[in-house]
Amino acid sequence: MTRVDDPISTAIAAAPAQNDDTLLGDSWLLGFDTETTGTKRDDAIVSASLVLRNPDTGFEGDTVAEWLINPHHRMNPAASKVNGFTDTFLEQNGEEPTQALANIATAITMAQDKGIPLLAYNAPFDVRMLSGDLGRWNLQGLPERLLVADPLVIDREISHRNGKRNLAHTTEYYGVDPHGDFHDATADTIAAVDLIQPMSRLYPQVGALRLGELMDWQRQAHERWLVSFNQWLVSRGRRSINDTWL
């Protein structure tokens, strides 16, 4: 991938390199979120946001990049109700997908090369959507081995709380005030990135996770959650599910 000359790429290039010993609580992060035409694997991204977070400056020092994309794919009416996008609006205002998707993937790859985790709430959804779109348009894919931080997986492992665990409820639990409305890609990205510091304060073991152990820790946490969730499903006469993280 070639580097694009834009603020997010410039900021990533200027960020320090990190290594396996970097602590999650001290780490730079590249937040990522998408809004899509639907939730199926053949759906497409209509908007995306990347937020580079310097742990020393917090929200005030964020570098933000946003994309509005014409997916050349019909909006699912249910998804349109949630994110507010219509086919007509996207056709008239969206960027062509090839350049937008290439720029997103380039920025993520640059951050990965510096050891900066890609942070996304329920990360498999956004990563798989982006990978699907890159493949659909015959673009270079993401690195094979991604370093990802997923606040949903982390929260399930440490908080053991009742109630919903969507982004809105989780940010409320950790005392995070959103910057904008949920189901806006940028507001959701910032909210997800904002979770790491209060998680680290309330549960110091989160901030003490080293980047070199982060992926295995999250995979194991997801597996433990899945066992518990499937036991709950079966106890209510429902089928268990097969589900993998990244």
TrEMBL record:
What Gene Ontology terms describe what this protein does at the molecular function level? 3'-5' exonuclease activity; nucleic acid binding
| Protein name according to UniProt | DNA polymerase III, epsilon subunit
Q: Which GO terms describe its cellular component?
A: cytosol
Q: Which residues form a coiled coil?
A: none
Q: Which domain of life is it from?
A: Bacteria
Organism, per UniProt?
Bifidobacterium bohemicum DSM 22767
Family annotation (Pfam families): RNase_T
Keywords per UniProt: Exonuclease, Hydrolase, Nuclease
Describe the location of the Exonuclease domain by residue ranges. 28-205
